[in-house]
């Protein structure tokens, strides 16, 4: 009986100190766009993301590629995630906003999106761990 009384508080202590399930691999998820559509006159687009990293060794860069007309025909570009920085070992769970200029999402060029655009996004941390690539929902292209 004494062993059980000793083990129960010990088990509770281990359970309370358990990590929140975020490992060393970064996790990125889409939250929102700053607008409900883009067009020839759209000069900026803000993408809001949730970024998690269990060991906090991510820097402030995100890799993204615009996907037009159901195919990725441009290489991934790096953009800053303001407010992240290197967290040196502390758990990261942050909402970040990535600002894109019109040349980042290829609007107003010779081949604009037929009807919509989406992005492939991933993050690499300092240890070389790569998040899963996520694909944002489509954002409509307004031809007016």
The gist of it:
The chain is built from one helix and nine strands; from the N terminus they run αβββββββββ.
SSE layout:
Elements: H1 2-16, E1 27-33, E2 38-39, E3 44-53, E4 61-68, E5 77-80, E6 92-101, E7 116-122, E8 134-135, E9 139-142
Parallel strand pairs: 2-9
Antiparallel strand pairs: 1-3, 3-6, 4-5, 4-7, 7-8, 7-9
Keywords, separated by commas or semicolons:
mainly beta, 3-stranded antiparallel sheet, 6-stranded mixed sheet
What do you see in this structure?
- The strands form 2 sheets. Strands 2, 4, 5, 7, 8 and 9 form a 6-stranded mixed sheet that branches.
- The chain contains 1 helix and 9 strands, in the order αβββββββββ.
- It is 10% helix and 38% strand.
User: Uncertain spans, ≥5 residues at pLDDT below 50?
Assistant: 16-20
Percent strand equals 35-45%
Q: Care to count the β-strands?
A: 9
Q: Determine the fraction of residues in helical runs and give it as a percent range.
A: 10-25%
């Amino acid at each position: 009986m004494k062993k059980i009384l000793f083990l129960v508080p010990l088990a509770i202590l281990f359970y309370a100190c358990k990590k929140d399930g975020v490992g060393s691999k970064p996790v990125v998820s889409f939250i929102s766009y700053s607008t409900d559509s883009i067009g020839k006159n759209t000069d900026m687009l803000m993408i809001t993301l949730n970024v998690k990293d269990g060991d906090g060794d991510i820097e402030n860069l995100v890799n993204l590629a615009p996907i037009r007309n159901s195919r990725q025909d441009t290489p991934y570009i790096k953009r800053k995630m303001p407010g992240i920085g290197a967290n040196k070992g502390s758990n990261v769970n942050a909402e970040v906003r990535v600002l894109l200029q019109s040349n980042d999402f290829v609007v107003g060029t010779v081949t604009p999106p037929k009807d919509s655009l989406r992005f492939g996004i991933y993050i690499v941390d300092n240890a070389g761990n790569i998040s899963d690539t996520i694909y944002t929902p489509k954002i409509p292209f307004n031809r007016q």
